[in-house]
Amino acid sequence: MNQETLIALEEICNSYNIEIPFIYSLSESGLIKLVIIREDSFVDHMQLPRLEKYINFHYTLGINIEGIETIHHLLLRMETLQEEVNRLKNALHFHEGGM
Amino acid sequence: MDFIDYYKTLGIDKKATTDDIKKAYRKLARKHHPDLNPNDSGAQLSFQLINEANNVLSDPEKREKYDKYGKDWKHADRFEKAKQNQSANQRETRSGQSSGDFSDFFESMFGGASARGRQVKYRGEDFHASLELSLLDAYKTRKQTLTVNSKSIRISIPAGIENGQTIKITGYGGPGLNGGPNGDLYITFTIESNAEFRRLGKDLYTTAELDLYTAILGGELTLNTVDGKVKLQVKPETQNGNQVKLKGKGFPVYKKEGEFGDLYITYTIKLPTALTDKEKELFTELSKL
């Protein structure tokens, strides 16, 4: 992994004004992947949008880690179902002779 | 610019405590937060209003001003004066929304987003756009220049994109706040219907008309496919509605270069009309065999 894209946990916590244990909890739940280099923890910048979403869920909406984990799974499921809806819509359109 | 009743927005009364406001905001935000309602512009608008109401009512200074002048918001001169005297140090809030997400009413009372004085870095707003393509456009990978918020973006649309499919262009959404990263641009594609070909996933379907004699005796047919004409051998005694498959002449498979679906051809047999006397005689003769 390119080290230039890694952001130190402390920097993230200072920037978002959050506590380090929160990110460790996300990591333990498998919601965020931490990169450990010589005992220091980092987050890849590609994960920042996801991390910010979880920060909002927790600090703005008051949702705990278990809730975030549940939401994460439900959103993935929604995404899959949305793809299925699109596929079925296209098939229906096809059978109605429209496409 | 209409007056917005922030108390009504949060479903609380004017005597609500800070704790009541926080609870009401969280309850509504959990329902309408854009991250929990992907691709729902209605939820986005509701959340914007809820967020705005919370921003005002959870800040004692702003709430006092709102309570005092709220209904008389048209007296902008008084508000302007009050705004000038407003303390530069405002409480830091966490909302997750970019600038430009506040109503005209809010801007008139409390100034722009900068007046909120947030220090936290926020990722910019995600933009959503839609793009219409013809079936033939979607057949080949194409480069297209789009203008999003006065910015030109050149994107590559992979061949085989589906109707209703959304692609993400990272970093082309709204600008981040306080040095935060830009949001993303999501483009949803609509593939227009085509008169000649119908598409189902990676396969294409079309019809070919045969005259009676070719259908009975067999022969050769020149057929249009999306990438050019092909010659097709028609078997003798082909029935109306018979279907043949041309392997690899369908639609390209999305992001799988060189992979194509199949083209299905359904024959429709056209019976001759305006028969001559000789033809009628011959058909009568055939019918007696």
Features:
heterodimer, A: 99 residues, three-stranded antiparallel beta sheet, 4 helices, 62% helix, 12% strand, elongated, B: 289 residues, 9 helices
Helix share bin of chain A: 55-70%
The main sheet of chain B orders its strands as 6-7-11-10
Number of helices of chain B: 9
Class of secondary structure makeup of chain A: alpha+beta
Share of residues in helices of chain B: 25-40%
Shape descriptor of chain B reads elongated
Largest interface: A-B, 30 and 33 residues
Strands of chain B, count: 11
Distance between the termini of chain A: 44 Å
How would you sum up the global shape of chain A?
Answer: elongated
| Backbone CA Rg of chain A | 19 Å
Structure description:
The complex is a heterodimer of chains A (99) and B (289). Chain A has a three-stranded antiparallel β-sheet with strand order 1-3-2. Chain A has four helices and three strands. With 99 residues, chain A is of the alpha+beta class. Chain A is elongated, with a radius of gyration of 19 Å. Chain B has 289 residues and is α+β, with helices and mostly antiparallel strands. Chain B is built from nine helices and eleven strands. In chain B, helix 2 (18-32) runs antiparallel to helix 3 (41-57). The interface between A and B is medium-sized, with 30 and 33 residues.
Task: Describe the structure concisely.
The complex is a heterodimer of chains A (99) and B (289). Chain A is α+β, with helices and mostly antiparallel strands and 99 residues long.
SSE map:
The complex is a heterodimer of chains A (99) and B (289).
Chain A: E1 6-8, H1 9-16, H2 20-28, E2 34-37, E3 40-44, H3 48-60, H4 65-95
Antiparallel strand pairs in A: 1-3, 2-3
Chain B: H1 6-10, H2 18-32, H3 41-57, H4 60-69, H5 76-84, H6 104-110, E1 127-133, H7 135-139, E2 142-148, E3 151-157, E4 166-169, E5 185-191, E6 198-200, E7 203-211, H8 212-217, E8 219-225, E9 228-234, E10 243-246, E11 263-270, H9 277-287
Helix pairs in contact in B: 2-3
